[in-house]
Structures are given as structure tokens and as C-alpha cells.
Write a structure and sequence with these properties.
Two copies of one chain form a homodimer.
Chain A lengths: L1 H8 L7 H21 L6 H8 L3 H8 L2 H22 L10 H28 L4 H4 L1 H13 L6 H10 L3 H9 L4 H15 L7
The structure holds a DNA duplex (30 and 30 nucleotides).
Chain lengths: 200, 200
DNA sequence: TAGACAAGCGGACTTTGGTCCGCTTATGCT
DNA sequence: AGCATAAGCGGACCAAAGTCCGCTTGTCTA
């Protein structure tokens, strides 16, 4: 009876044991390949072979390459997500919107600097992938809430997140713009775009 | 003698007659294919075949698919570029920075609305292609000049151009956000980010 | 006009993401 | 335990971008 209720509550009703085993096998294989050969070694065929599964299995589990890479990043990103929802201010709730936004971008840029190539892969793998990744939707909601008193928080949140796009920052780095300068520019734009008063 | 001087002045010293002929053949073929079958019909193989040249020739002339599509867009974009440099204010020189920036985005969004899929293709075809297209560099310079009194005009110009990214606006349209709302959001962000006083 | 040489050409080949479909197997029910 | 069934599996197959290299051809000079 209880089990029944629990099962109804879950979105994905169940995942077969072999499916779950393969999921983690694939993720571990991808991690290993990336650790050894960087982003260039992360071809779907190679991951499938290293995991000892068929290529179709990888696509079945993760949808596309972007999904696979996103899953790889998921764990680290989740840490930041929790800090935003449950953590102490200014990252977590309690501080004024502008400060929270600044703290978010500060933390996110640190995360991005550490995983730039993987994030780039996950955002670039297929056109528009960026916006479909779960994390993007999450950050977007977060920022839109912080801008709730603006005329179009939804659009503004997209604009703000544009500053964190991997391809932009990859390009900036390639042009010799360092992370410190990027941070300063982002902070300045956040100040101009996010109202300091609102504090949800 | 004069010819010699002229030849020194050109960047690309010369283009062989057959090369030039093939360039226009390829562009015409691409135009035709796009007119008939939209963006889906624009594969490099198809373009090469339609133009009656080898695939290698297409890549030799245009570098990659992104370059080919950019060349297709070049003509229409050039119109806007000239209006920005030589045209009447507020798009052309003479108006205050903020108004020029607003006028630019207004004009660019019109252009984008008309060619969204082609622009999307040119920006997406290869990762980072967006920033390498000649037009991007041009717009970037333009906006950076308009923000010359800001702490980091270069970075700010990139942020501003992020609002015009094809993939973002494609996503917004897919989410049901119309062009009018996009325009309003962009205008509002421009107002917040571009200093009204500066007028180069 | 002839000859040298760089620029150009073409299409077979490689790489890689993604699809498809017939076979296998875990799971839940009786 | 045995069965029905849907989920899962694998790898052959496809599409499309981009590379390579031996052959061709325009162009410049003598």
C-alpha cells in the first residue's frame, strides 16, 4: 500500500537494475576517459566501449552527448544548487537580491573556471542544449526570482546567464582576458541590472 | 606601377579567376537551396553538388560551414553596418550613446527576426564560431565605443551582444516569448547598461 | 608563345553523433 | 516456478562536417 503510493509519487516510475548499473558504468567510464585524455577523449563510442556497453545504451540513458556530459557535471553543480537554496547568505536566502546575484555569479564563475571545457561541451554539443540542461533552468528560476520587481524578470535572467555562457568565457580567455577581469565585468553588469531593494 | 601599388594594398593579393567564379557559384547554389528547402537543405555536400564543384572547393573558399553561411548573410548585414557608420542618427553617428545602442539593437533584432535560422546556423555550426564572424567583431567594436566611459567596455560589449545571440532568441521564441517582449527586454537592459552621457 | 609554379580542384576517406530494430532479460503477476 | 510483457540492449547503419593528396589549370615571366 505504502509502496504503491511511493511509486506514484516518483516521476520515473522505476529503473531496471541493469539499467541503473549501466548508467553508473557509463558515467564512471566517462570520468575515467576525461581524466586521462581530457575533453578530446570523450567520444560517445569511446565511452561506450570503455563502459563495456553498446552505443545505443549510452543514448538511451542520456539522450545525447550533451546529456551525458551534463550528468557528469551534475554532482558538482548540485553542490552549488544546495548552497543557493539552503546555504548561508549572501549565496543562500536572506541577503538582498543584488548581493545574492553577485554571490551567485562569483560562485558560478569559480565552478566554471574549474570545468570550463566540460561545461562548454555540454552547452555546445547540440544547438540550444544550454537552455535545456536542468541546471540552466534552475539558475534561471533563481535569478528571475531575484529580479521579480523588474518589468520582465524572465528575460533579464536569460540575459544575466548569458554572461556565464561557456563559449563566451572561453573566447574571452583566448583573447587574453583573465578571470579577474571577467569577474569584475560580470559584477558591474549585475549591479546595473539587478535591483538592490528586492529581497525574496 | 599603379597596379603594383594597388596590389600591395589589397589584403588578399589576388584571387584566381576560376576561384572567384566558383565562389559566386557556391553562394548562388546555397541561396537557391536555402530558398527551396530552408536551412535543412543547406548541407555542404548538397551545396557543392548544386554548384557543380567538389566539396573540398567549398571548404577551401569558406573555411567551414559557418563561413559559408556567414558569407550568405554578409550582404544583408553590410547594409546595417553602413547605416551604423554613415547613416543618420540615432543609428548613425551624432546621437547620444544610449540612443545609438537602442537603435542598433532595434535594427539588429529586425534583421535577426528575418534571418533567425541562417544566423543560428552560422553561430552554431562550430563552437565559438559566433565570435569569429567578421560581423560580430564589427558590432563588438561599435558597442565598445559606445560604452567607452564604462570600466570595461570590451566585456560590456560582449554582454550586450549576448542578448542578440541567435540560440537565445530561438529558445525564447520556442518558449512563447514574442519579438515585442524580447525587444522590450533588450531595450530595458540597454538602458541599464549603457551610459546616456557618452556620445562618440 | 612556352614553360614553371603556385593556386586551385575534386572526391574518396575519416570521424563522430545519432538512429533503428531484432534479440534479450528483468520484473511483476498468478 | 512459470509466463507475459515492456524495458533494455547492442552494434550495424546513416548523415554530415571536415581532411587529404594527386591531378589540373590559371597566371606570371622570359
Amino acid at each position: 500500500m505504502n509502496d504503491e503510493l511511493l511509486q506514484v509519487l516518483r516521476r520515473a516510475p522505476q529503473e531496471r537494475a541493469d539499467a541503473a548499473r549501466n548508467r553508473s558504468r557509463v558515467l564512471e567510464a566517462a570520468d575515467r576517459l576525461f581524466a586521462e585524455g581530457g575533453v578530446a577523449a570523450l567520444t560517445v563510442d569511446a565511452v561506450a566501449q570503455e563502459a563495456g556497453v553498446g552505443k545505443g545504451t549510452v543514448f538511451r540513458r542520456f539522450g545525447d552527448k550533451s546529456g551525458l556530459v551534463s550528468a557528469l557535471l551534475d554532482q558538482r553543480e548540485r553542490e552549488l544548487q544546495e548552497a543557493v537554496v539552503f546555504g548561508a547568505p549572501p549565496l543562500g536566502p536572506g541577503a538582498p537580491a543584488r548581493e545574492r546575484a553577485r554571490a551567485f555569479f562569483d560562485a558560478y564563475l569559480t565552478y566554471l573556471a574549474d570545468h570550463l571545457d566540460l561545461v562548454g561541451l555540454s552547452e555546445t554539443a547540440s544547438p540550444g542544449a544550454r537552455f535545456r540542461v536542468g541546471a540552466y533552468v534552475f539558475w534561471h528560476r533563481h535569478l528571475a526570482l531575484l529580479c521579480a520587481d523588474r518589468p520582465d524578470p524572465d528575460h533579464l535572467a536569460h540575459v544575466l546567464l548569458g554572461m556565464a555562457a561557456a563559449d563566451l568565457n572561453t573566447e574571452l580567455l583566448a583573447q587574453g582576458v583573465g578571470w579577474d577581469r571577467i569577474r569584475a565585468g560580470v559584477a558591474s553588469a549585475v549591479d546595473a541590472l539587478v535591483d538592490p531593494s528586492c529581497s525574496p
